[in-house]
Amino acid sequence: MSENMLQKLPRYVLQRAYGSYRYKRNVPAGLRPLLQKSTIYCQFGNSYNEAMGELPLLHSRIETFFDY
Questions:
Q1: Residue 68: its pLDDT value, please?
Q2: pLDDT at residue 6 tops 60
Q3: Is-contact 22 42, C-beta < 8 A?
Q4: Cα separation of 13 and 4, whole Å?
Q5: 8 A C-beta contact, residue 8 and residue 33
Q6: Buried b / exposed e across 46-59, counting CB within 10 Å, b at 16+?
Q7: What is the pLDDT of residues 10-67, one digit of tens each?
Q8: Of 1, 26, 30, 46, which is least surrounded by CB within 10 A?
Q9: Number of C-alpha atoms within 13 angstroms, CB side, residue 47?
């Protein structure tokens, strides 16, 4: 069993089948017509440590974007 499988992933983070990490977030209903999407995805790391290092900044940017 890999080390990554033992660690619970934070909210909005998925590990893809080939090991990389992806941020997946539903777009708020009010922004969907503007973005023409209901979900956004962002590839952000090829290892657990890399992904967790990038997560705070990525999450902050998306939250800020959704607050506009």
A1: 73
A2: no
A3: yes
A4: 13
A5: no
A6: eebeebbeebeebb
A7: 999 999 999 999 999 999 999 999 999 999 999 999 999 999 999 999 999 999 999 8
A8: 1
A9: 4
Nearest residue to 35 via CA among 66, 3, 59:
66
- Which pLDDT belongs to residue 8? 86
Token pair in block for residue 26? 């539903």
Residues near 50 by Cβ (< 8 Å), separated by ≥ 6?
Answer: 21
Residue type, 13: V
pTM: predicted TM-score of the whole model, two decimal places: 0.78
